[in-house]
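User: Please predict the structure of the protein below. I'd like the answer in structure-token form so I can feed it into my own downstream comparison script.

Assistant: Understood. Taking the following sequence of 430 residues as input:
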Amino acid sequence: MRTPKVLLAALCVVGLTLAACGSDDNKSSSSKASTTSASAKLSGSIDVWIMDPGSPKIQSVVKGYATDFQAKHPGTTVNIEFVPWAQAHDKFTTSIAGGKTPDVAEMGTTWTPEFADEGAFEEVSKPPPGQYVSSLVDAATLDGKVWGKPWYAGSRALIYRKDVLQKAGVEVPKTWDDLLAASKAIKAKVPNIYPIGYTGLTEHMYLPTIWQAGGQIAKQDGDSWTSELNTPQAAKAIQFYTDFYKEGLTPKAAIGWEEPDAQTAFINGDIAMLIAGGWGYNAIIQTKPAMKSKIGTTLEPAGPSGKDTAFAGGSHLVVFNGSKNKDLANAFVDFMLEPANLNKFTGEIGFLPGTVAGIKASGYLDDPIRKPFAEQLLDHSAVYPPSPRWGALEGANIFDGEIQKVMRGKQTPQQAAQNLAKKMDEEFSG
């Protein structure tokens, strides 16, 4: 995914052809590695690349994984390297081309299909239903095979000011119609605050509205992908999203905002509602603790299809085919995915574990204010098309440009949908 800039202190989410790797030899190698790591003494060293979280405190959690694992398995060495997200895609590309990859790495979910298509990763056995968040398994799947294990994840929900909704005399929005009505009531009855912070530079806010409208973003036919945006549903979603801007229900400056800008506006009391993740909620109350009692959360409003789907972003843990110590690599990945270890990390960054057991252990489902983030991820989320070319589409910012044209009145939602479909198909065809 495009990494949340809140997490970088700078999303959920980015970067993005050899034949895909996935022979029976790979499968048996993966199974053998899992069996060996469980039954034989581990030894040697591995190199692990983790995306730099931008926080010494969170870095220390990851370093603690290595220290604890080494203590549990004397004679092993785990070398952790933190890689800035902005440099990571190029670094992976160079390392794969040069045959000098790490043993284990964190991989953004929209990158996994791209590098799996290049044969970079060891295949992962298909997990049983209910072990991981299903949408994250989908994001790691290419050619019917799984190439990474979900590590952490997050989905956005609706964060709102309870006091503002009360002043406006409206209930918590559950549908698009509710959200529009609430926004108009806030504009009319509560001065000096905009109803919502829909931005022009956050695809994780507007692309999910296509699902909510009952549409799809792309479809797969064999090895090929084609856009599904040239549809009435996609046009309706674009119109719904951009109408908030054109009707003055979101700040004029929001056309140039990214997600952190909308979060800042919420903290400053400039907007009453915000689509954001648990990491955003954490940042809000940490920055301005007095707001905690004023904030409510709920699932994203459902569109005309009845769906309230949000994007599930996050990271996978992958083992590279070039690893000289796959037993140790797989054992360390499994160690990081143990629920107690998972929550040491996810609890700090405001994301959720990628495993169902980890989410249950996180306490989110028992916390009324955080429960919607967990429910959104578990039962109301989806991932963008796991095409090897998706990352390039995000990196080119084609979506933002077309949405901004509609916000400015330079083209219709139907024209934007047509233009996006054309650009997507050109990229998919390579």
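That's the full token string. Residues 1-39 have pLDDT under 50 and may be disordered.
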